[in-house]
Amino acid sequence: MSKTFEDNALKAKVLSEGLRQHLSEVEKYGVKETDLLQLEKDVQAAIEMNQKVEALREEVSAQLQAANAALADIKERAMRYRSIIKQNFPQEQWLRFGLPDKR
C-alpha cells in the first residue's frame, strides 16, 4: 500500500473511532454513529481494494519483466540473423531476406 493511501485511510479510521468515543459531544453537529460506522467500513473496503491493486501491480511487474526478457532474446537472435545476411550477401540482395536496404 502506498504511504499516502495508507496514511489517509488510517487517519479517517482513527478520526471515526475518536468521534464515536465522544459521540455525545458531536451529535449536535450532525455526526451520527451510523455514518461513522459506515466510514469505518468504507476505510476497510478501500484498504482491501488497494491491496488488490498492489497485488495486480506485482503481477504486472513480473509479466513485464518476462516480456522484456523475451524481447531482448528476440532482438539478440534477430541481430545474429541480420549479421549472417549482411556478411554473406551483397546489399542488393538483403531485401530478399526481409532486411531493408541499409547498412
Overview of this protein structure:
- Helix 1 (3-21) runs antiparallel to helix 3 (33-88).
- It is built from three helices and no strands.
- With 103 residues, it is mainly α.
Give the helix/strand layout.
Layout: H1 3-21, H2 23-26, H3 33-88
Please outline what is shown here.
The chain is mostly helical and 103 residues long. Helices cover 77% and strands 0% of the residues.
Keywords:
single chain; 103 residues; mainly alpha; 3 helices; 77% helix; rod-shaped
User: What structural class do the secondary elements suggest?
Assistant: mainly alpha
| Average of pLDDT | 93
Helix content: over 70%
Quaternary status of these chains? single chain
